[in-house]
Design a protein that fits this description.
This protein is an alpha+beta fold. The chain is 43% helix and 19% strand. It is built from 30 helices and 29 strands. A hairpin with a 5-residue loop joins strand 25 and strand 26.
C-alpha cells in the first residue's frame, strides 16, 4: 500500500480514482466496508405539466468512523441537486465529481449520519428512470419508475449498488384522484387543494435501489376473491372493462403462485403486500419491484382467440416475476456479475410451478424452446460465461441476454436432476433462511447445494458458471457383438474454445419402429462414456437427451437421424418431438441439411402436429428458413407449398382445430405470404371486417407490413381501413411501425430512430422488424454501419434489452457476404461488451451466408426441384440428416 493510500485509509477518504462515471466495482466494495443501515425518506412532487419531479431527500447511513460519503447521481437533461446538508448543517464542501455527490469525511461522524438535499429529475428524458405514458383513449397520463440496473441515481442521489440495501419511505404529491402504488403499503392520503393530493407510504423492507418503484395515475383496481389482504391488480382506467377477464385470470394465477412459492421455499411472502401494475408499452415484459411488480399491459390483457403460446408466455411471466420476490428481492445477488442467479432461479421456479399449477400448458416444452436460444448464443463467438466479470455498473445492461435467461435455468434444472429434487429443495430453503434481506454470490449458492447433497460441486461450478461455451455431444450405437449385445457410445468435445470435462447427467432413449422406448441414464464426467445396453434395447434408434435435462448440442449419426424423423408420428411426448426437430434445425444451421429439405420435412409433418407450442416454434423456424436461408429461386419454388400447408391449418381443411391453433397458423401464413393469391387474401383481411372478425389490430398491421415489404405500396382503401380498425390507444405506434416496411422510407426512419430523442422506445422496437425485413436487405445494408456505430449511445439512453433487439434486427435482416464484411469492419470500434453483442448476431449472419452459398447454387436447386417433383406431393423424399461438423 502506498503512502497516499495509507493516509486516505487513516482519514476515511475514498481514492479519487474510484470516482469514475458510472459505479465501479472498486467503489462499491469500498462503500460496503464503510457504510451500513441505509434509510431513504423521499418527499416528492410531480410538477404540473409532468415534465419534472422535485424531491426532498433524507438519507440516513451509519459509518464506523468518520469517512467520505459518496452518493451516485447521474444528472440528465435539467436534473439538479442543491441545498445539501449533513447532520443539520449546510455542507459547502460537498461537490459533484464524475456522476457522484461527494461529502468529505470532515463533515461526517462515527455512527449515524443524516444527509438532507433537494433533487430534481426529468420525466421521460432519454436515459431517465422516470417515464410517462399518455393514454389517447381518455386523455389520462401515467408516470412510473424503472430503476434497473443502476438508474435509481437518475431520480435522486443514492448508493446505487445491490448490496447496500435500504429502507425506503415515500410520499408523493400528485393530481387529485390519482392512485399511487409503491413498494410498501399506503398509509395516508392528504388533500392539499382541489387539484392536488399527497400520498404517503409506510417504510419498505430492506431492498436494493434497483427495486425501488412507484407508479402514479388514474389507475383502476381489481381484487380477486380469496387473495391475501393488500394484493391487487392495477390497470389503466380505459382498460378496466375490456381487460376484466384477463386481469382476474392473472390475479388468480398470482394467488396460486404465492402459495406455491411459499410452500416450496418454506418462507411466507416476504413483503407487506403484493400488487401487480399493468403498464402500457412497458420496456420489459415485467419488472419484479419488491411488493409491486410492473407488467407490460399487452402481455397480460390478451384478447381471445390468441395462440396458446401467448397464454403460456403470460403465465410464465406472472410466475417468473412472483418467484423474484424470493430470489432477487428477498435474496439478492451481491453484484451484477451474478445477475444470472436471480434470473435463472425465476425462470426455473416459474417452470417448476407451472408444471404443478398448469400442467396442460406443457411448461417444460416452453422451457426447452427458451433453452434453444441459449444454445444458439453459446455456440457463437459472442458468448459469455454465466458469471460475467463487471467492473462498472454502467455496463450492466450488456449482461442480459440468452445466457442469463436460457442457460442459467437450464443448468439449475440439470443440477436438480443430478443431485436429486429433495436435496435441491433443501439447498434453496437453506439459502432463503440464511440470506433473507441480504445478498449472495455464486460461491454461497454452490456451497448451499453442496452441503444439501453431500457432493463436491466445484468442478461442476467451474465448468458451467465461469467457463463460456458448451459441449457438443454425440450418441452412437455400436454393432452387436457375437453375443448379440450392443453398446452406446456417448462422446463430448468442447465448442467455442471450451475445455473439458462438462459434467452432467441426462437420458438417452432406445426406440423401436412402433414407438416403444426404454430410457437409459447417462452420467458424463469425461470425454467419452460407453454404456453396455445389452439385450435391454427396445430398438436401435437412439434419441439423445430424451428428457431434456442435458445442456449442449446433441447430435447423432445420419441413419439414426432419418429413423428419428420417421418415428415422429408415433412419439407422443412433444418434448421428444422437439428434441428431434432441434437436431434437424441444428443441421440446417451448420449447413449440412438444406433449408429447402427442412421446409419439405416441415410441410409434411406440420399438418399432423397437435401441440400448439411446438407448432409455434416450427412456424417460427419455417419463416427463418424461407425468408432468410433460402435464395429467391428456392423461395419462389416453395412458397405455394408452404402457404398451402399453413392455410389448411387455419381454414380447418386438414382437421378441426381450436381457435388459438388456427390463429397461430394464420399468423405464420401472414409472415411468409408471397404468391398473388396470398397477397389478395391479406388485402381482403384488411379491408373486409367480416373476413377477419377474429383478427387483432396487430394482425392487420402485420398484413399491411407484409404487403408493403412485397409490393412497396398499400392501396389507399387498405390504408384507410387499417387506420379505422386500429384502436386509438395504439394507432399512432402501429401506423408508424407499418410505415417502416416501405422500401423508400428506410433512411428517414433511421434518422428518426437516432435523432428524435423524445420518440418512445416502444415505437422504435415495434418498427425494427418491418424496417429490417430480409427481403429489403439491399435497402438497409447501406445503413448498417451507422446503426452499429450508434450502439454506445443507444446503450446509455435506452433500457435493458433495447440494444439486444436493435443488434438482432439490423444484423438479422441481412443475408449477404458484403453485409458480413461491413459488420466485421465496425467491430473494432466497439467496446468489449457491445462487441460481444454484435458477434452473437454476426454468427447468425455468417451461418446465413454459408447456407445460401452452399444450398443456393444453381445445380443444387435443380436437383432439389427434381426430387420434389418426384415425390408427387404425396410423401416427402427422405433427406439424410448428416452430423454437423464444428
Amino acid at each position: 500500500m502506498g503512502t497516499q493510500a495509507r493516509v486516505n485509509r487513516a482519514l476515511g477518504r475514498v481514492d479519487t480514482k474510484l470516482l469514475a462515471p458510472g459505479i465501479s466495482h472498486a467503489l462499491a466494495r469500498w462503500r460496503t466496508r464503510h457504510y451500513a443501515d441505509v434509510r431513504y425518506r423521499i418527499d416528492a412532487r410531480l410538477a404540473r405539466g409532468l415534465r419534472t419531479m422535485r424531491a426532498a431527500l433524507t438519507i440516513n447511513v451509519t459509518v464506523r468512523a468518520p469517512c467520505d460519503i459518496v452518493l451516485d447521481w447521474c444528472a440528465i437533461a435539467d436534473a439538479r441537486v442543491d441545498a445539501i446538508r449533513i447532520n443539520g448543517a449546510l455542507c459547502p464542501d460537498a461537490r459533484i465529481v464524475s456522476e457522484h455527490v461527494m461529502i468529505p469525511a470532515s463533515a461526517t461522524r462515527a455512527g449515524e449520519n443524516e444527509i438532507v438535499l433537494c433533487a430534481q429529475a426529468p420525466i421521460g428524458a432519454p436515459g431517465s428512470a422516470l417515464l410517462r405514458y399518455h393514454d389517447v383513449a381518455d386523455g389520462s397520463d401515467y408516470v412510473y419508475t424503472l430503476c434497473v440496473p443502476a438508474d435509481a441515481r437518475t431520480l435522486f442521489p443514492c448508493f446505487d449498488q445491490p448490496d447496500l440495501k435500504g429502507r425506503f419511505t415515500l410520499s408523493l404529491e400528485c393530481p387529485s384522484g390519482w392512485q399511487v402504488v409503491s413498494n410498501a403499503p399506503r398509509v395516508a392520503v392528504h388533500r392539499i387543494d382541489t387539484r392536488c393530493q399527497r400520498v404517503q407510504f409506510d417504510a419498505s423492507a430492506p431492498i436494493s435501489t434497483y427495486l425501488f418503484a412507484f407508479a402514479a395515475g388514474p389507475f383502476a383496481s381489481m381484487r380477486e376473491r380469496g387473495l391475501r389482504q393488500g394484493c391487487m391488480l392495477w390497470l389503466r382506467r380505459s382498460q378496466k372493462r375490456s381487460g376484466r377477464r384477463a386481469a382476474h385470470a392473472a390475479l388468480e394465477l398470482n394467488r396460486r403462485a404465492l402459495e406455491y412459492f411459499s410452500e416450496y421455499t418454506q418462507r411466507a411472502f416476504p413483503f407487506a403486500k403484493y400488487d401487480l401494475v399493468l403498464i402500457p408499452e412497458f420496456a420489459f415484459n415485467g419488472m419484479e419491484h419488491a411488493g409491486a411488480t410492473f407488467l407490460r399491459e399487452e402481455s397480460v390483457l390478451i384478447a381471445p382467440p390468441a395462440p396458446a403460446v401467448e397464454y403460456a408466455k403470460c403465465a410464465n411471466l406472472i410466475l417468473h416475476e412472483t418467484a423474484h420476490q424470493w430470489f432477487g428481492n428477498l435474496v439478492t445477488m451481491r453484484w451484477f456479475d451474478d445477475v444470472w442467479i436471480k434470473e435463472a432461479f425465476a425462470n426455473w421456479l416459474a417452470a417448476r410451478a407451472a408444471a404443478t399449477l398448469l400442467p396442460s400448458s406443457n411448461p417444460w416444452l416452453s422451457f426447452a424452446v427458451l433453452k434453444s436460444s441459449a444454445l444458439q448464443t453459446d455456440s457463437s463467438a459472442g458468448t459469455t460465461p454465466l458469471r460475467q466479470p463487471l467492473s462498472n455498473l454502467a455496463d450492466a445492461k450488456s449482461l442480459y441476454g440468452n445466457i442469463v435467461y436460457g442457460k442459467g435455468p437450464a443448468l439449475l434444472r440439470q443440477l436438480e436432476h443430478d443431485i436429486g429434487a429433495r436435496a435441491f429443495q433443501r439447498g434453496v430453503q437453506s439459502l432463503i433462511a440464511a440470506y433473507a434481506y441480504k445478498t449472495i454470490d455464486r460461491r454461497e449458492l454452490i456451497d448451499a447445494f453442496a452441503t444439501a447433497s453431500g457432493r463436491d460441486l466445484s468442478v461442476w461450478a467451474r465448468q458451467w458458471i465461469t467457463t463460456p461455451g458448451l459441449p457438443r455431444i454425440t450418441v452412437r450405437m455400436s454393432r452387436p457383438g457375437r453375443d448379440g449385445r450392443s453398446s452406446m457410445l456417448v462422446e463430448q468435445r468442447g465448442a467455442a474454445k471450451a475445455s473439458l470435462p462438462w459434467p452432467q447427467r441426462f437420458a438417452v432413449a432406445s426406440m423401436s419402429a412402433r414407438g416403444a422406448s426404454r430410457t437409459f441414464d447417462v452420467r458424463l464426467d469425461s470425454s467419452q462414456v460407453r454404456l453396455s445396453a445389452g439385450r435391454t434395447l427396445v430398438g436401435r434408434t437412439l434419441l439423445p437427451n430424451a428428457s431434456d435435462f442435458g445442456y449442449g448440442l446433441f447430435t447423432t449419426d445420419p441413419g439414426n437421424g432419418d429413423a428419428l424423423l420417421a418415428l415422429l408420428p408415433r412419439i407422443k411426448d412433444p418434448l421428444r418431438r422437439w428434441s428431434i426437430w432441434s437436431m434437424v434445425w441444428e443441421a440446417v444451421r451448420e449447413a449440412t441439411f438444406g433449408p429447402d429439405a427442412f421446409l419439405r420435412q416441415v410441410s409434411h409433418w406440420l399438418p399432423s402436429e397437435q401441440e400448439p407450442l411446438l407448432l409455434a416454434a416450427l412456424s417460427e423456424r419455417t419463416q427463418i428458413a424461407l425468408r432468410r436461408y433460402c435464395t429467391d429461386a428456392q423461395r419462389d419454388s416453395m412458397a405455394a407449398e408452404i402457404e398451402a400447408v399453413l392455410e389448411a391449418g387455419f381454414t380447418g381443411a386438414t382437421r378441426q382445430r381450436d381457435a388459438s391453433v388456427r390463429t397461430s397458423f394464420r399468423r405464420a401464413f401472414i409472415n411468409v405470404a408471397q404468391t398473388d393469391a396470398s397477397r389478395a387474401r391479406l388485402h381482403a383481411w384488411i379491408v373486409d371486417s367480416e373476413s377477419a372478425d377474429a383478427m387483432t389490430s396487430i394482425d392487420l398491421h402485420h398484413c399491411a407490413q407484409r404487403l408493403l415489404i412485397l409490393d412497396g405500396t398499400l392501396p389507399s382503401e387498405a390504408m384507410r381501413a387499417l387506420r379505422r380498425r386500429t384502436e386509438a390507444a395504439h394507432r399512432d405506434r402501429l401506423m408508424f411501425a407499418t410505415g417502416a416496411a416501405a422500401r423508400a422510407a428506410k433512411r428517414s426512419y433511421l434518422d428518426a430512430f437516432l435523432d428524435e430523442r423524445s420518440m418512445p422506445e416502444s415505437w422504435i422496437e415495434e418498427a425494427l422488424a418491418p424496417f429490417n425485413a430480409p427481403e429489403h436487405a439491399r435497402q438497409t445494408q447501406p445503413l448498417l454501419a451507422r446503426a452499429i456505430r450508434a450502439l454506445p449511445r443507444l446503450k446509455n439512453e435506452h433500457k435493458i434489452f433495447f440494444v439486444n433487439r436493435w443488434v438482432a434486427a439490423f444484423i438479422g435482416g441481412q443475408t449477404s457476404d458484403s453485409a458480413l464484411r461491413i459488420v466485421q469492419r465496425e467491430l473494432p470500434r466497439l467496446p468489449p461488451d457491445l462487441r460481444r453483442k454484435v458477434l452473437e448476431a454476426t454468427d447468425e449472419l455468417a451461418r446465413t451466408v454459408g447456407i445460401r452459398t452452399r444450398f443456393g447454387r444453381a445445380a443444387y436447386v435443380r436437383r432439389a426441384l427434381v426430387r420434389a417433383k418426384g415425390a408427387n406431393g404425396s410423401k416427402v423424399t427422405p433427406y439424410r440428416v448428416r452430423e454437423a461438423q464444428p
